[in-house]
Design brief:
- The protein is an alpha+beta fold.
- It has helices at residues 2-12, 55-67, 91-99, 104-114, 122-132, 136-146, 152-160, 181-195, and strands spanning 24-25, 36-37, 44-50, 73-79, 167-170, 173-176.
- Helix 3 crosses helix 6 (136-146).
- The radius of gyration is 18 Å and the shape is globular.
């Protein structure tokens, strides 16, 4: 089913794979304060550079969600979603404001599930807030206070030369484009071997 969905998306958006994806590594340190799912002491850090409007990023979520059950893995998200038209804030600001109400990952998941962006009017924000269980008035006030601040995701992506989505880092290993559940789990397995957490099967 997944393969058919990926193929349909590739045909719809005229995506052609002409070269094998390179397996490369980059030196990268995620800021200590950057939110993540999983234990901060987990030895394998998975970072998704994604956009809530990217159809391939949405396909990627199935595999990423399976990794959250692994005690050796922490998962982080770097938001590269374009700023909503006519808006003073980005979805990164929206998620940060939701985090102040204890709903960071609920809003993150809701944005990916929606996949069509979010309206910026007070009424649209109120409707969205109600759907994820947060207070709309507090959300709007927070966005007005913080929306003028620069988004951190694009800055972090630029420092690594990330210019498209999705891109996934497994510690220092770079995975370009959409990855299946099996591909992500294989990358984690190989990283365990590299770190000496497990022995390579004979």
């Amino acid at each position: 089913v997944r393969e058919k969905l990926v193929q349909a998306l590739m045909e719809k958006h005229d995506v052609k794979v002409v070269l094998a994806r390179p397996d490369r590594r980059v030196k990268f340190t995620l800021p200590d304060e950057w939110p993540r799912r999983g234990s901060e002491s987990a030895p394998i850090r998975v970072v998704e550079f994604g956009s809530y409007l990217c159809p391939f990023c949405r396909v990627l979520q199935e595999g990423l969600s399976s990794l959250r059950k692994d005690a050796d893995v922490q998962v982080a998200f770097v938001d590269l979603t374009p700023r909503p038209q006519g808006s003073q804030w980005t979805t990164e600001h929206l998620v940060e404001c939701a985090a102040k109400q204890g709903k960071r990952w609920e809003v993150h998941d809701a944005l990916y599930k929606g996949g069509k962006g979010i309206g910026t009017s007070d009424q649209e924000l109120e409707s969205f807030a109600s759907g994820v269980g947060i207070y709309g008035e507090r959300l709007r006030r927070c966005l007005k206070e913080t929306g003028s601040q620069p988004a951190q995701g694009p800055r972090l992506a630029t420092s690594l030369g990330v210019a498209s989505t999705p891109v996934v880092l497994v510690n220092e290993r770079v995975l370009l484009g959409v990855q299946s559940r099996e591909q992500l789990q294989n990358a984690i397995r190989e990283e365990r071997v590299r770190l000496g957490l497990t022995k390579e099967p004979m």
